[in-house]
Amino acid sequence: MKKLILFWLISVASVFFFGCAGPKVMVNGIEYDALSEEEEMALCNLARLYLSGNVPNVISQQEAGLIRRLDPICMIKYNGDRSGRAVIRWELHKRNIEVVFDGKLLDPTAKCWAQTEERSPEVIDFTKKGTLEKQLQQYAPQKKPRMKRSRRSRR
């Protein structure tokens, strides 16, 4: 009877401790430990801190204010337990700003850098009828009116 109660307590304790493992992710048929939502938020806050430390070099003061207020887009591609490449992206009006973490995420040994991309100023909407025709007319060379000449002036 004692062995049965001891076995039951050990099984309940193991379910309790091993059942609380963090989130998992499958990559190419291999299961890896993933970051929890709180850890992803901490990674986003690290990206904000990295950008605020590089204000005159990477971003302007106005962009830093927008980054503090806006929520980023977080994309993580895992290649091991809690490691891989994480891209934290803010889409602003004039350009996109990204902070990339590579290596063991949330570890001081992870590589980190910022990259920016200018957004295209004009987007062509092909769904509206006549949009392409109007744009082609704007860039087409203008025809100069021809002056009529008399037969005498040609000879």
Give me some keywords for this one.
two-stranded antiparallel ribbon; 6 strands; 5 helices; four-stranded antiparallel beta sheet; 155 residues; alpha+beta
Give an account of the 3D structure.
Strands 3-4-5-6 form a four-stranded antiparallel sheet, with helices on one face. It has helices spanning 2-18, 37-53, 61-69, 131-139, 151-154; strands spanning 24-27, 30-33, 73-80, 83-91, 95-104, 111-118. It is α+β, with helices and mostly antiparallel strands. It is extended. Helix content is 36%, strand content 28%.
Question: What's the arrangement of secondary structure elements?
Answer:
Elements: H1 2-18, E1 24-27, E2 30-33, H2 37-53, H3 61-69, E3 73-80, E4 83-91, E5 95-104, E6 111-118, H4 131-139, H5 151-154
Tell the overall outline: extended
Numbering strands along the chain, what is their spatial order in the largest sheet?
Answer: 3-4-5-6
Mean pLDDT across the residues is: 79
Instruction: Please provide the count of β strands.
Output: 6
Q: Kindly, what is the distance between the CA atoms of the first and last residues, rounded to a whole number of angstroms?
A: 127 Å
- Unreliable segments (pLDDT under 50, ≥5 consecutive)? none
Tally of alpha and pi helices: 5
- Determine the strand fraction and express it as a percent band: 25-35%
> Mind summarizing the main beta sheet?
4 strands, antiparallel
N to C succession of SSEs = HEEHHEEEEHH
Helix content: 25-40%
What class, by secondary structure content? alpha+beta
Gyration radius from CA atoms, angstroms:
30 Å
